[in-house]
Design a protein that fits this description.
Among the domains are: 40 residues, no CATH class; 57 residues. It contains four helices and no strands. Helix 1 crosses helix 2 and helix 3 runs antiparallel to helix 4. With 148 residues, the chain is mainly alpha-helical. The N and C termini lie far apart (68 Å). The relative contact order is 0.05.
């Protein structure tokens, strides 16, 4: 080895799973700056809430929107009533089901977002039916091949 080359350094200073500082920051502890921000925020939160309530009472629609979204959050989903889907026992039956969902969206029975969610469930159902069908075919082929 020449005097200008150094020995290669190991890829890791510490073995995997070993901390370089075993007595490091305890779990759950927070940085001092974040603690200071929390104390500033909690000190002014009551005043800020009162200001938003006053603005909403004075007719500020944005302030009212902020309050209402906190009090009654938007629903993420609802049961769908009035949607009659045909029985879907095979992948071929799903075309009629998708047609029924499209007709319900056009008629306003369900929203486009709800129709899309229903169609996604139907697609998952189609894949499950297809997988079960393929499994039956493979078993039949393997049985036929083993009988030879």
């Amino acid at each position: 080895m020449s005097e200008n080359t150094k020995p290669k350094q190991p890829a890791h200073r510490w073995p995997p799973g070993t901390s370089g500082n075993p007595a490091g920051r305890p779990r759950g502890s927070r940085h001092a700056a974040l603690l200071a921000l929390d104390s500033i925020g909690s000190a002014g939160a009551e005043d800020a809430l009162r200001a938003v309530v006053r603005a909403a009472q004075d007719g500020d629609v944005r302030a009212a929107d902020i309050l209402l979204r906190r009090l009654w959050p938007e629903r993420r989903g609802r049961p769908v009533d009035g949607l009659d889907l045909p029985a879907m026992a095979s992948a071929a039956d799903l075309a009629a089901g998708v047609g029924a969902v499209a007709a319900a969206v056009v008629a306003g029975v369900v929203s486009p977002e709800e129709g899309q969610a229903i169609a996604a469930v139907m697609e998952a159902h189609r894949r499950a039916l297809e997988t079960a069908d393929l499994e039956q075919r493979i078993v039949a082929l393997e049985t036929r091949e083993a009988a030879r």
